[in-house]
Every structure is written in structure tokens, then in C-alpha cells.
Amino acid sequence: MKILYAGTPSVAVPPLVHLAERPDVEIVAVLTRTDAPVGRKKVLTPSPVAEEAGRRGLPVLKANRVDAELAERIRDLGADVAAVVAYGALVPQAALDAVPHGWINLHFSLLPQWRGAAPVQRALMAGDTVVGASTFLLEAGLDTGPVLGTMTDEVRPDDTAGTVLERLSRTAAPLLADSLRAVVDGSARPAPQQGDVTHAPKLTAEDGRVRWSDPAVAVAHRVRGATPEPGAWTRLDERRLKLDLVLPRPDVRDLAPGRCVLRGDAVLVGTGSYAVQLTRVQPAGKKTMEATAWARGRSTEEEVVFQ
């Protein structure tokens, strides 16, 4: 089975590794986005998928847009089928038609829930307790094609979007491989998506801003959904303070929304319902630290109110 693999971020690496190590698979090329500036010095850096493909000696195509010329290059590769995991660009019809058995997308939601660029992030922000992954036949619409297979996973108490995506990227890799094989050998039974459609647009920095007037559970959901990217944050002294996981504390109800206090070994912040407990924070220009160490480093006479 000859495969074209399209993907870009780190979440797309485990499925690539799984396919590359299967004896029945030949990856004819890897399609990924072009090198991007990384870090404060904006050093042009290959995508995680490009780096993994390079380590394995796989041919790499780099493009942020699939145009007619690239579609012809894809046709000439001779792939039986294409696999897509978070490539980061739309695939036009000309490219879809360039591969005999089509393009199979691994999407990290239970379609038609959370169609779009940030399915896990949006699911966690909404308070979903079950997440999952789907494989489907790519078509011109946004995550609208018929589904080939699904798997589910329960959200754990200490999960963030980052941990869920990392886990799903590994556990759903065999699902992608099985779906590719089924499509090529003709045993696949694609089923139209059924149920209510929800959308998951890419998160902006503002999506990570905590609204302390929200109930504690909503605050906790927002923080876990925005971690690690774009990052959950609040304002203090006109500067951003990044937040890691927060823990609901229904036993503490005497703090106004946004008021932060240190009580014993707990850093507590009031919300629109009861308090939440901070675990780790990252002040502007500093490294992440335990919330208690941060709180003890501030003046004990200074009232702390997050904005």
C-alpha cells in the first residue's frame, strides 16, 4: 500500500511513525507546511512532521497551499491513498482526484461534533467528558465527509488539551492505518455523519483569557482547553500571568471574583460561584513555577485581584 502522508504539528508525528513502521506500507512522500519562525529569535524551523520524515529518509514536500502544480506532483507520486493528520491547509478537488483511493483524514473528535481546527480544545472548554477520534473520507467541505471509523476516550481529571491530543495521536494511529487499508482493499463502509454539528474554530489568545465572573467549573474548563496553546492567562499589574491547571474548590465561597489569596499551602481565586485553586503560574518574562512559590514571593500586604 503506497501512501502520501500529509501533516504538520507534533500531534501528526505518532501516526506517521506507526505507518512508517508497518511492513505493508510504503510512504512515497510526506507533505507538510513550510519551515516557520520559532522562538524569540524567530529561527526558521522545519515542522515536527518534516523533522521525523527527515530522520526516516522519506521524501518531503513543503507547501502552505495545495495548488494545481502541487496536485500534479502528487499525481505523479503514484500513491494508492493519502493520509491527512492536521496538515493545516485545505486540499482542493484537483488534489483529491490525484490519488486513486482518495484522502483519509484522522480528526480528533467524534464527528460531526467539533468540526474544525481545534476540536479537542473546544471540547474541553465545553466540558465534554468523552472525546475521541474519527477517520473520514476527505471532501471539499470542512470535515464533512463520510466516516470510516471512530474511537473514544474519557477525559481524565488532570487532562489538558495537550495531554489529550498527545494520547489520541498515539491511540488513534492504528485506526488510521486500518481505515487506509480498508479503503484500498474495498472493505471500507463509509457512513454519512449523523447528529448535531458543532464547530471548533482555531483558538485565539483572547480565548485563553480567564473570565473570573464565570462559574468555577467554566473557569477550569477554559484553562484546560487553552493549555498549552494558546495558553490560559489573566492580568495582574497590567501584565499577563499564565495559568496551568486550576482545581475547583467548592468549599471556599468567600472570595470575590478575581480576588487571589494564599491560605496555607493553597493559592485560591474567587470566581462567579466558588473558588478555584491555582497549581502553577508563569509570570511575564519568567519560567513556570508553583503557585505557592509565586504567591509567597509577593508582598503579604498587597491585595491581589486578577483582571
TrEMBL record:
Binding, (6S)-5,6,7,8-tetrahydrofolate: S109, L110, L111, P112
Keywords: Protein biosynthesis, Transferase
Domain Formyl transferase N-terminal: residue ranges: 7-173
Keyword Oxidoreductase: no
Keyword Kinase: no
Top EC group: transferase
GO-annotated molecular function: methionyl-tRNA formyltransferase activity
Catalytic activities: L-methionyl-tRNA(fMet) + (6R)-10-formyltetrahydrofolate = N-formyl-L-methionyl-tRNA(fMet) + (6S)-5,6,7,8-tetrahydrofolate + H(+)
Cellular component GO terms held in the UniProt record: cytosol
Pfam annotation, one family: Formyl_trans_C
Formyl transferase C-terminal domain: residues covered: 202-298
Family listed: Belongs to the Fmt family.
Function (record text): Attaches a formyl group to the free amino group of methionyl-tRNA(fMet). The formyl group appears to play a dual role in the initiator identity of N-formylmethionyl-tRNA by promoting its recognition by IF2 and preventing the misappropriation of this tRNA by the elongation apparatus.
Name used for this protein in its record: Methionyl-tRNA formyltransferase
Organism of this sequence: Kocuria rosea subsp. polaris
Gene that specifies this protein: fmt
